[in-house]
């Protein structure tokens, strides 16, 4: 905003974005409408009157999108006679759906590479680890971390929260900077655990490639990816596990401690000593969250699956 006359510097751009958002909303493309409003929000100072109005629009669009995604599908009548259609025809719709889902996820992942900051920092990160471990493991490490970070980006986009592109830092990993403060514990937990969920998917994909090719490099990538995402579940500082713990009640935190102890006995993965120790410390604190069974279930599955994948590391 111009300090002399009070005119919005990006006024014309904001009008164009508003027009595109309205058009998208009228045609039912709620995701595009929300994306346009989110872009507009980043061009406004936080104290502007329009800033609050646009945040309300984004919140309303997010509610409509979530309602549409959870709406029950129309009921189908069960056949009264045995279906003699060949199995490949009955499963064709499912195969097509899975194929389209994979293509959409691949398109979303490729979209992240169009950001100059992400691509350049990723290339620098790759170069550092290539010189240490060789290019196959370095490439697998970079891609697994990238998929993890894009999991955060996907959840942020779904929730209508503005954030920057993933940025790689050699020796540290990668991060996504939020442009808005998140105060709701459940929202914070969803954002935090989305990264390890996508990271688990990357690790399982690498393990599947190992099962098909029997190439040791795929096993190494799967185990290292599991280890990195397990490390991120430590509930301390800005790690993903801390954001997940933000929403858990005291008894749910102790339940996580129990799962960690069980997986430590089963896998002997030493990272679980650190994860369990910090989890006990957090469970003893008084600032427990409101509690959420879905967050608890997600945390349990992540600890169990990632521990099994990472047991060959260390």
Observed structural traits:
314 residues; mainly alpha; Methane Monooxygenase Hydroxylase, Chain G, domain 1
> Mind telling me the C-alpha Rg?
22 Å
- Return the structural class: mainly alpha
Number of strands: 2
Can you summarize the main beta sheet?
2 strands, antiparallel
Task: List the strand order in the largest sheet.
Answer: 1-2
Overall 3D shape: globular
Describe it for me?
The protein has 314 residues and is mainly α. It folds into 2 domains: 64 residues, Methane Monooxygenase Hydroxylase, Chain G, domain 1 (Up-down Bundle), CATH 1.20.58; 199 residues, no CATH class. It has 13 helices and 2 strands. The protein has a two-stranded antiparallel ribbon. β1 and β2 form a beta hairpin.
SSE blueprint:
Blueprint (H helix, E strand, L loop, with lengths): L10 H16 L3 H12 L7 H22 L16 H4 L1 H21 L3 H18 L1 H25 L7 E3 L3 E3 L9 H29 L2 H16 L8 H6 L4 H18 L3 H14 L8 H18 L4
Antiparallel strand pairs: 1-2
Helix pairs in contact: 1-2, 2-3, 6-7, 7-8, 7-9, 8-9, 8-13, 9-13, 11-12, 11-13
What's the short story on this structure?
This protein is 70% helix and 2% strand. It is built from 13 helices and 2 strands.
């Amino acid at each position: 905003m111009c300090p002399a006359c009070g005119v919005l510097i990006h006024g014309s751009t904001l009008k164009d974005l508003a027009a595109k958002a309205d058009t998208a909303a009228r045609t039912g493309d709620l995701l595009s409408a929300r994306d346009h409003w989110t872009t507009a929000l980043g061009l406004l100072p936080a104290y502007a009157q329009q800033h609050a109005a646009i945040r309300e629009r984004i919140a309303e669009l997010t509610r409509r999108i979530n309602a549409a995604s959870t709406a029950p599908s129309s009921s189908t009548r069960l056949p009264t006679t045995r279906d003699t259609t060949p199995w490949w025809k009955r499963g064709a719709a499912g195969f097509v759906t899975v194929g389209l889902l994979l293509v959409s996820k691949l398109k979303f992942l490729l979209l992240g590479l169009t950001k100059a900051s992400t691509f350049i920092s990723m290339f620098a990160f790759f170069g550092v680890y290539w010189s240490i471990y060789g290019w196959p493991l370095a490439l697998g490490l970079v891609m697994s971390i990238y998929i993890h970070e894009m999991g955060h980006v996907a959840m942020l986009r779904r929730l209508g929260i503005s954030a920057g592109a993933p940025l790689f830092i050699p020796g540290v990993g990668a991060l996504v900077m939020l442009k808005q403060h998140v105060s709701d514990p459940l929202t914070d937990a969803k954002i935090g655990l989305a990264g390890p969920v996508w990271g688990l998917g990357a690790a399982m994909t690498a393990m599947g490639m190992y099962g098909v090719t029997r190439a040791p490099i795929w096993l190494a990538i799967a185990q290292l990816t599991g280890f990195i995402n397990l490390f991120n579940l430590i509930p301390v500082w800005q790690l993903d596990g801390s954001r997940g713990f933000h929403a858990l009640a005291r008894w749910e935190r102790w339940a996580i401690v129990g799962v960690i102890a069980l997986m430590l006995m089963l896998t002997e993965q030493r990272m679980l000593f650190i994860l369990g120790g910090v989890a006990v410390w957090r469970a003893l604190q008084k600032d427990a969250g409101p509690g959420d069974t879905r967050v608890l279930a997600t945390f349990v599955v992540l600890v169990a699956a990632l521990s099994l994948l990472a047991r060959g590391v260390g």
